[in-house]
Amino acid sequence: MGRSLRASLTTAPVSILRRVTEQPTVSDYESAGERAFDYDRTVALSDGVFAIALTLLVLSLTLPHVRSLHTGVLGNRLVHKNGEYFSYAISFAVIALLWTRHHRLFRTLNRIDVTVTGLNLAYLAFVAFLPFPTRVLGVYGQATAAVVLYAITIAILGMLAGLMRLHVRRAGLVDPSRARELRAPGYWALAPAVFLGSIPIAFVDTTLAKLFWLLVLAPGVVGRLRARARQSAKS
């Protein structure tokens, strides 16, 4: 899963996008006003889907079944729903991170084209789908199929995000004044690599596979540690 996997995730989409980006699209013939309208509608739709997906996550939390004469066990039943709490928390964090990166990508664009629209719609389809594998993971967290379903969903989301990132750079859709933001390390290939890598682990130990997902936090943690080290060196 080392450099070879990351290299394949990075270079494989380029060949898919090459022919598409070389052809003129409808947006090439639109006026500036029409392009702004298309951009605003795409961003509004995206924000709406993210908001709904975040809201639907709470439906993955189910009420414990307690008879009216046995309410004393309610606290115990609530505590034992830790699997549902875990799936809700990780999915909320994932969607929040996806929205942040989606927002960061789109604010660098000066226009969008048909390819961006198509990739974005596919991306949003899996964002809207995420509450379902979240629910499955919460109820059947120790089942291999539940972990695999969740991992595949997140991996696809990461790859679609990477395809959008590659396309907007190749198609010249990035505002030159913001191009530097896309040059910064995005680590977009890390999430697909981690979640796909967790699938064979899930066939051995589902708990270990879920712990393996925490590796996606590594770049952020390392970045903060480096920033603190630099600040300490300056002081």
Task: Give a quick precis of the structure.
By secondary structure, this protein is mainly alpha-helical. Helices cover 72% and strands 0% of the residues.
3D structure, described in words:
This protein has 235 residues and is mainly α. It has one domain. The protein has helices at 3-22, 32-56, 74-79, 82-106, 114-129, 131-139, 144-170, 179-183, 190-202, 206-212, 218-234. Helices cover 72% and strands 0% of the residues. The longest helix has 27 residues, at 144-170.
Give the topology, please:
Blueprint: H1 3-22, H2 32-56, H3 74-79, H4 82-106, H5 114-129, H6 131-139, H7 144-170, H8 179-183, H9 190-202, H10 206-212, H11 218-234
Helix pairs in contact: 1-7, 2-4, 2-5, 4-6, 5-7, 6-7, 7-9, 9-10
Question: Averaged pLDDT, please?
Answer: 79
Beta fraction: under 5%
Name the overall outline. Answer: globular
Largest sheet: none
Helix and strand content put the structural class at mainly alpha
